[in-house]
Amino acid sequence: MKKQKNACFWVAIALILCLISSVGASIVQTGGGAIKYHDITMVTDSGHELDALLLVPKNATRENPAPAIVASHGWYNNREMQDLNYVEYARRGYVVISISMYGHGDSEVIPDGTWWDAENNANGLYDAVKYIARLPYVDASRIGVTGHSNGALASRVAVMQDEEGLIAAALLVSNDAVYQKDDQWVNIFGSRDAGIVACQYDEFFHRVKQEDGTKSAPRDYIDQNTAQSFLHFGVDPTGLDKRSADTYYTEQIDGKESIRVIFNPAITHPWAHFSKNVVADSVTFFDKALDAPIKLDANNQTWQWKAFFNTVGIAGFFMFVIYAAIALLDARYFAELKPAADAQPLPAPKGKGKGWYWGGLAFGAIMGVILYPTIYAWCSKNRPAFWNQEATWYIGMWTFLCGVFTILFMVVSYHCYNKKNGLDLAERGVKISGRKLWKTIVLSLIVVVAAYALVFISDYLFLTDFRLWCFITIRAFAPMHFATIAKYLVFWLVYYIALSVATNGFNFVQLGKSNWLSTLVQMFFVFIGPEIMIGVQYITFFNKGFLWSELTHLGGSITGIWLYPIVFILPLAVFVCSKIYKKSKNPYIGGIIMGILACVVSVTNTLTLG
To answer: What angle do CA 79, 448, 590 make, to 5 degrees?
Structure first.
């Protein structure tokens, strides 16, 4: 009874944290009630459904229309990834639409390769421009577009399609403009105000082909003719004065004074999502271009509080997962899953046991490091159409292979060492009956459904979710994603079940005086592999100006970015599985729960191919 009361207490604390997260994030993104915040799905001019968030500040009225900004995420993301920008734009009096481009978020999936066809209106971004221009409380002569990465590409394409002249300003974050056409320097923006955020350590953009066939480093972009031509309004920069970053240049174009500026922060491509300085540059640019109705200092920013409350929600979400699973063990149906006593660690490894223990941990980390870059090319060329998400296919295949190697190592270690040294698989919970396995699956599904119910309630009542920047995003999603989740689920289940069995059935051993030291060691070993890969990528980048994957031709430029969530989720999974195991002596509960959650998060936050 005490265990049930303790678990229920922590479930209640988890619910309170989730409520604090939802209310707090809502207060920030609505400006304390000064901004109306809408979840909309529009049927666009291109004939597709576009999922978006619409923010309307109180100052925007029919009598006093406000300027507007359309914002877009990058490839493999969704509308919420622009939250730092749309929060700050709306606070300054702009009407804002943040879209999920087609194939992303809950927007309609369109055929592969058609995203930039003229009829699809810049993958939905120009559709959003047309939509917002019709709103009676929007000043249609002052509409800006912006986006990160492929969202910047969408902004650029929208400008080039904008024969109606709806777009007055464009800010491209972490992508390039079009600098030349038919070998001639061009000004694609015309008299519009235009800016570029060119990160010095951008993994993809701001490079120029050199005479020897190589490409320049992105940190040298501001000195290249491309950047100089942009700052000189599209003319040949040869012989002209060198222009600098972070400086506004103006020129009369078609009778209108136009702006050009390049911001050149010393950050990476994804970090532009979370940079206070980039936000400050963005709001300053649009104030100069569109004249913000509400004047606030560029460094007066509140989006960080939304990030804080979202992080509180992450803590509450996983606290709920852990203690809801433990509390359910006291339910009558699951009574036979409840152990007589908490799980205890195995004796500290000695002799050859040290080699198997530490060697197994090192083997898992090393195999992950080896497999991750080496399978990238194969996965890129051999994705069956059935698995219709590129990122999920690659990460899922790597996850699956790591799971297979973990299982193989456990089998070998059991037969070569553990069995004859007294490891009892039934006593450790690894060997269970079919009846118990069925109830384990049912309990795990109940926990996942209940946990995601919190997410959907938060979305319904407050239009918020639980996220920690790009590390993990737990969001409400449309029913169309269930089929894709089902396709990929086995990839994650194999690994996370194997991880939980290895962590708890084999490697939960007595290290020092605290039972937690074993868990911390295992959290470190699942963390260190991805962290080494990130370190190798970016230490090389900062020293040489190019990514390790570019110099070795192993992996792709995006593979380092895709590791960010993995660095967070793997040690978290060890922690969650360990907490549940110590109270249940069942390694499958935590493994199934974390496998499902990791799969759902991966599937619902990326690009789905048509």
So the answer is: 120
Element (H, E) at 268: none
pLDDT at residue number 294: 98
Instruction: Please tell me whether residue 98 adopts helix, strand or coil conformation.
Output: strand
Ranked by mean pLDDT, which of 122-136, 197-211, 542-556 comes out on top?
122-136
Q: Which pLDDT tens digit goes with each residue over 405-448?
A: 999 999 999 999 999 999 999 999 999 999 999 999 999 999 99
User: What are the helix (H) ranges across 299-433?
Assistant: 303-328, 352-374, 376-381, 390-413
Question: Considering all CA atoms of the chain, what is the largest pairwise distance in Å, rounded to the nearest integer?
Answer: 87
Q: Does 330 score more than 90 pLDDT?
A: yes
Q: What is the pLDDT of residues 103-134, one digit of tens each?
A: 999 999 999 999 999 999 999 999 999 999 99
| DSSP assignment string, 300-334 | ---HHHHHHHHHHHHHHHHHHHHHHHHHHTTSGGG
Token pair belonging to 297: 């200092």
Residues whose CB is less than 8 angstroms from the CB of residue 474 and which lie 6 or more positions away in sequence, other chains included: 313, 314, 317, 452, 455, 465, 466, 467, 597, 601
If DSSP codes are grouped into helix, strand and coil, which group holds residue 358? helix
For residue 473, the cross-strand partners are 467
pLDDT at 211: 83
Q: CB-based burial of residue 537 (10 Å sphere; 0-12 exposed, 13-18 middle, 19+ buried)?
A: buried
> Which residues 6+ apart lie within 8 Å of 122 measured at CB?
116, 154, 155, 157, 158, 161
DSSP track, 455-480: HHHHHHHHS--EEETTTEEE----TT
Can you tell me whether residue 586 is helix, strand or coil? coil
Mean pLDDT of 236-246: 97
Rg (CA), the chain: 26
Of 399, 327, 360, 407, nearest to 509 (Cα)?
A: 360
Amino acid letter, 380: S
b/e map 538-568, b = 16+ CB within 10 Å: bebbeeebbbbbbeeeebbbbbbbbbbbbbb
Place of tokens 């979202």: 310
Q: Cα–Cα distance between 91 and 33 in angstroms, integer?
A: 11
Sign of CA dihedral 406, 412, 417, 421: positive
Distance CA 136, CA 63 (A): 9
CB neighbours of residue 384 within 10 Å: 8
Please give the average per-residue pLDDT across 513-521, as a whole number. Answer: 90
Please return the burial class of 382, using the count of CB atoms within 10 Å of its CB with bins 0-12, 13-18 and 19+.
Answer: exposed
Report the 10 Å Cβ neighbour count for 163. Answer: 6
- Of 290, 280, 318, 300, nearest to 144 by C-alpha is 290
